[in-house]
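step=encode ok
step=design start
structure_in=
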């Protein structure tokens, strides 16, 4: 079996769920300034600012890419919890997002256009 260092586990735990999901080919759509939903499973809600997810239909939730991979990607598998952990660790670390990078939502500053005001 593979062995992981504390630093690798910490990095996988803090890696961005959104970045990881994109690298793993899990389709997401942005539904708010700080919310993504799964395309395949629309009850999956990800909050990037908290780096957390909640899969409403399964009542499963967690923080970080490692938790997401373990609980979401391997949810239908017949693997033991230990096997899920090792496979999820391997996937997150090899995805390149295991460096703890947090996903930042790009926000445009508000611009007021006086021409849009209609006079009564």
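sequence_out=
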């Amino acid at each position: 079996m593979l062995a992981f260092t504390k630093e690798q586990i910490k990095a996988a735990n803090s890696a961005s769920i959104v970045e990881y999901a994109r690298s793993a080919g899990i389709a997401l759509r942005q539904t708010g300034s700080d919310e993504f939903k799964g395309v395949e499973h629309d009850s999956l809600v990800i909050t990037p600012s908290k780096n957390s997810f909640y899969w409403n239909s399964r009542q499963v939730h967690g923080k970080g890419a490692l938790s997401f991979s373990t609980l979401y990607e391997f949810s239908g598998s017949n693997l033991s919890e230990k096997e899920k952990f090792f496979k999820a660790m391997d996937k997150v670390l090899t995805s390149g997002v295991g460096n703890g990078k947090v996903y930042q939502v790009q926000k445009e500053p508000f611009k007021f256009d006086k021409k849009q005001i209609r006079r009564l």
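step=design ok
step=annotate ok -> The chain has a mean pLDDT of 87.
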